[in-house]
Amino acid sequence: MEKIYQFLKEAGTYYLATLEGDQPRVRPFGTIDLFEGKLYIQTGKIKDVSKQMHANPKIEICAFKDGKWLRVAAKAYADDRIEAQEHMLAGYPSLQGMYKPGDGNCEVFCLKDGTATFCSFGGAPEVVAF
Asked: Which residues of the chain have pLDDT under 70?
Protein backbone atom coordinates (compact mmCIF):
# COMPACT_ATOMS: atom_id res chain seq x y z
CA MET A 1 0.00 0.00 0.00
CA GLU A 2 2.85 2.34 0.85
CA LYS A 3 4.39 1.86 -2.61
CA ILE A 4 1.11 2.76 -4.34
CA TYR A 5 0.66 5.79 -2.10
CA GLN A 6 4.24 7.02 -2.68
CA PHE A 7 3.96 6.68 -6.46
CA LEU A 8 0.71 8.66 -6.60
CA LYS A 9 1.94 11.29 -4.13
CA GLU A 10 5.19 11.81 -6.04
CA ALA A 11 3.41 11.90 -9.41
CA GLY A 12 1.35 14.82 -8.10
CA THR A 13 -1.35 14.51 -10.73
CA TYR A 14 -3.09 11.32 -11.70
CA TYR A 15 -6.14 10.66 -13.84
CA LEU A 16 -9.30 9.28 -12.28
CA ALA A 17 -11.86 7.48 -14.43
CA THR A 18 -15.47 6.96 -13.35
CA LEU A 19 -18.64 6.03 -15.18
CA GLU A 20 -21.65 8.22 -15.79
CA GLY A 21 -24.21 5.72 -17.02
CA ASP A 22 -22.24 3.95 -19.75
CA GLN A 23 -19.99 6.94 -20.54
CA PRO A 24 -16.47 6.97 -19.06
CA ARG A 25 -15.41 10.26 -17.44
CA VAL A 26 -11.75 11.04 -16.83
CA ARG A 27 -10.32 14.00 -14.99
CA PRO A 28 -7.03 15.06 -13.37
CA PHE A 29 -6.90 14.52 -9.61
CA GLY A 30 -4.22 15.18 -7.03
CA THR A 31 -5.36 14.04 -3.61
CA ILE A 32 -4.11 10.78 -2.17
CA ASP A 33 -3.87 9.75 1.46
CA LEU A 34 -2.86 6.70 3.41
CA PHE A 35 -5.20 6.54 6.40
CA GLU A 36 -5.49 3.53 8.70
CA GLY A 37 -3.47 1.53 6.16
CA LYS A 38 -5.90 2.24 3.30
CA LEU A 39 -5.76 4.52 0.27
CA TYR A 40 -8.12 7.51 0.18
CA ILE A 41 -8.99 10.19 -2.37
CA GLN A 42 -10.95 13.41 -1.77
CA THR A 43 -13.49 15.51 -3.65
CA GLY A 44 -16.56 17.66 -3.03
CA LYS A 45 -19.99 16.09 -2.61
CA ILE A 46 -21.45 18.66 -5.01
CA LYS A 47 -19.22 17.52 -7.88
CA ASP A 48 -20.28 15.11 -10.61
CA VAL A 49 -17.35 12.81 -9.77
CA SER A 50 -18.83 12.24 -6.30
CA LYS A 51 -22.23 11.43 -7.72
CA GLN A 52 -20.64 9.05 -10.24
CA MET A 53 -18.72 7.14 -7.55
CA HIS A 54 -21.84 6.84 -5.39
CA ALA A 55 -23.80 5.45 -8.36
CA ASN A 56 -21.01 3.06 -9.42
CA PRO A 57 -18.01 2.67 -7.09
CA LYS A 58 -15.76 1.13 -9.76
CA ILE A 59 -12.93 3.54 -10.58
CA GLU A 60 -9.59 3.46 -12.31
CA ILE A 61 -6.56 5.65 -11.74
CA CYS A 62 -3.56 6.12 -14.02
CA ALA A 63 -0.38 8.04 -13.17
CA PHE A 64 2.98 8.49 -14.90
CA LYS A 65 6.35 9.52 -13.49
CA ASP A 66 10.01 8.90 -14.29
CA GLY A 67 9.24 6.70 -17.29
CA LYS A 68 6.96 4.40 -15.29
CA TRP A 69 3.22 4.30 -14.87
CA LEU A 70 0.73 2.96 -12.40
CA ARG A 71 -2.78 1.74 -13.08
CA VAL A 72 -5.14 1.19 -10.17
CA ALA A 73 -8.54 -0.47 -10.48
CA ALA A 74 -10.63 -0.37 -7.30
CA LYS A 75 -13.95 0.39 -5.71
CA ALA A 76 -14.36 3.77 -4.02
CA TYR A 77 -16.53 3.92 -0.92
CA ALA A 78 -17.38 7.15 0.89
CA ASP A 79 -16.08 7.39 4.46
CA ASP A 80 -18.07 10.03 6.34
CA ARG A 81 -15.82 10.06 9.41
CA ILE A 82 -14.46 13.47 10.35
CA GLU A 83 -11.12 11.84 11.26
CA ALA A 84 -10.66 10.63 7.67
CA GLN A 85 -11.44 14.11 6.31
CA GLU A 86 -9.08 15.76 8.83
CA HIS A 87 -6.25 13.39 7.94
CA MET A 88 -6.69 14.03 4.22
CA LEU A 89 -6.87 17.81 4.51
CA ALA A 90 -3.85 17.94 6.84
CA GLY A 91 -1.78 16.75 3.88
CA TYR A 92 -3.26 19.34 1.48
CA PRO A 93 -3.16 22.82 3.05
CA SER A 94 -4.07 24.37 -0.32
CA LEU A 95 -7.52 22.71 -0.13
CA GLN A 96 -8.31 23.98 3.36
CA GLY A 97 -9.74 27.22 1.96
CA MET A 98 -12.31 25.24 -0.06
CA TYR A 99 -13.00 22.29 2.27
CA LYS A 100 -13.35 21.81 6.01
CA PRO A 101 -13.87 18.52 7.84
CA GLY A 102 -17.58 18.08 8.44
CA ASP A 103 -18.59 21.00 6.20
CA GLY A 104 -21.14 18.87 4.36
CA ASN A 105 -19.19 19.11 1.10
CA CYS A 106 -15.78 17.59 1.87
CA GLU A 107 -15.89 13.92 0.99
CA VAL A 108 -13.25 11.22 1.17
CA PHE A 109 -13.42 7.85 -0.53
CA CYS A 110 -11.61 4.73 0.62
CA LEU A 111 -10.27 2.56 -2.19
CA LYS A 112 -10.97 -1.15 -1.66
CA ASP A 113 -10.95 -4.46 -3.54
CA GLY A 114 -8.25 -3.13 -5.82
CA THR A 115 -5.38 -4.06 -8.04
CA ALA A 116 -2.39 -1.82 -8.72
CA THR A 117 -0.19 -2.52 -11.72
CA PHE A 118 3.24 -0.89 -11.94
CA CYS A 119 4.51 -0.78 -15.54
CA SER A 120 7.42 0.44 -17.61
CA PHE A 121 8.53 0.06 -21.21
CA GLY A 122 10.45 -3.16 -21.50
CA GLY A 123 9.89 -4.33 -17.92
CA ALA A 124 7.56 -6.95 -16.56
CA PRO A 125 4.49 -5.50 -14.81
CA GLU A 126 4.30 -5.76 -11.03
CA VAL A 127 0.77 -6.42 -9.76
CA VAL A 128 -0.31 -5.70 -6.19
CA ALA A 129 -3.75 -6.61 -4.88
CA PHE A 130 -5.30 -4.73 -1.96
From this structure: none
Q: Give the model confidence (pLDDT) of 74-98 as tens digits.
A: 999 999 999 999 999 999 999 999 9
25, 17 in Cβ contact below 8 A?
A: yes
Pick from 69, 70, 38, 43: nearest CA to 54: 43
Alpha-carbon span 34 to 6, nearest angstrom: 9
CA 23/CA 38 separation, integer angstroms? 28
CA pair distance 11, 30, nearest whole angstrom: 9
Enclosing domain of residue 105: 2-129
Report which of 60, 75, 67, 77 is spatially closest to residue 117, judged by C-alpha positions: 60
Number of domains in the chain: 1
CB count, 10 Å around CB of 126?
13
- Kindly report whether the global pTM for this prediction surpasses the value 0.85: yes
- Residue 58, H or E segment: strand 58-65
CATH number for the domain harbouring residue 49: 2.30.110.10
